Amino acid sequence: MSMEMAAWNSVYHAMHAREDQHPFSPPVLRRIASFARPHTRHLTWFLTLSVATAVLAVASPLLAGRVVDAIVEGSPLRPVLLLAAAIAAIAVAEAALALVVRWLSARIGEGLILDLRTTVYDHVQRMPVAFFTRTRTGALVSRLNNDVIGAQRAFSDVLSGVISNLVTLALALAVMISLSWQITLIALLLLPVFVLPARRMGARLARIERERTLHNAAMSTQMTERFSAPGATLVKLFGRPSEESAEFARRARRVRDIGVRTAMVQEVFFTALTLVSALALAVVYGLGGFYALSGQLDAGTVVSMGMLITRLYAPLTALAGARVEIMSALVSFGRVFEILDLAPLVAERPTAHALPPGPVSLEFDDVTFAYPSAKKVSLASLEEVATLDTTDDGPVLHGVSFRVEPGQTVALVGSSGAGKTTIAQLAPRLYDTDSGTVRVGGHDVRDLTFDTLRRTLGMVTQDGHLFHESIRANLTLGSPDATDDDLWDALRRARLDTLVAALPDGLDTVVGERGYRFSGGERQRLTIARLLLTNPEVVILDEATSALDSTSEAAVQGALTEAMRGRTCLVIAHRLSTIRAADAILVVEDGRIAERGTHAELLARGGRYAELYRTQFATEEPEPVPAP
Which of 466, 461, 464, 463 is nearest to 512 (CA)? Predict the structure, then answer.
């Protein structure tokens, strides 16, 4: 590696090094070792061949010096040719080793990326919903991209670089001292002139790079938000496209200006380093020539010294920035481990079992629940705040108890924020209770396996979320083995078969981001079709018809009635038509069951339900409130 290339590597890593560096931590190093263990064999070969490459790098200058001496001494042609052949063989060996080392580096690095990403992804999948409600998606994705890649550099770049540079430095220094300790000493005096500017300029470039990163991130955020269908619609509705363009142009111009500054600083830096490199060679050749002419050195030795000086300065420069590189890699590992150290609040017990066959009931027994605090489910860095919110909002549910018998339908009604959705989320264990018990089929949900809960409980949420995939992929999310006949049957029951059949790509039609190519009612019916396909024994509908107009609701209601027949159903609704036929209605207020009974009983009671009926439902179907 040339001195200029070594300097560039040092500057590059300084530019991309993190400010939040931490000292070496034995626990972190042990965890890093656990990820490296599966790659031990490749790592061993990688390091061994890196050392061999370093040895060959020092051998070439010595042979070149021998060639010059042979020529000066008028040796026969054969020794010169043999030395030239040896140099050629070393060059071929170096090239072959470089390819093998690069393959090993890529195999180890990409393997480590795979291990880290899958580990983090699997762990994040087990995190509670509260984790996702607080975390910024971009910050989380950055951990799986930037930090994982930064961590793998510890093995693919830093580790091999440190070892090979140390070997090259030791061999080059030993050989140079053996050839001429005087020239070696003087050459080393120029080292601070070479290394210190690299570190100082690297720090300056790092500041510029961080500024550019911030502006690039701001541009990316603006593009991500404005280029989504809802964001573009919002901009058009409020008539601000010119202001949006002006703001984007301002940031883009700032990035351009920073790019020009970066290019000029780098050019000045490399021009100076080229000068220093030339000065170092001038010292070697000038002083070496003096010694050679005075008979104290051979001409070949001077040539070898000139070639070895690059083998000396390059690793010294690289090692000067090795600490920054190592610490940066450790910080990346630490940020990845931060995610892995967040313990999932909802976990499957080792003794969890499947639900035995038979009718399935749903029961809440004296359930109290408060949403977990930020420190239990999140990190300040993931929320992109200085400190986590320490506010404790207190319990959301207070001693909630009710039972839905097999085949029954129980409806939850109440004011917004009363706790209805929270109740619905506790049944499939999106959260766990603080006290009390939720039972499915008479079994505590915490004693059941996640697979059992997914097969037994089906839920349609308010937003009707769809992935940016095909209709087929969205429908088979919970039923991967479903046939096309199954899909069409579910669509027919959701009153969507005619619409999907008319699409050019049918089931393979991509629904768009969050299903934005379909209307709100169509998106919701697709999610209902997804539930129908899974055929659960317990159905939870969290205002599943809230996004439907009267026509769409009428189309879906028949399918829902058919799908709910004979199943245990918990329905949260704001429309009278979805709850009048319920076996029981629970009125939820302030996290408590305020009233319970049938539609007629609650109207006759003249309490909170009757009030809700008059304010929310009466416009749908006029019906006088019976006298108490």
Answer: 466
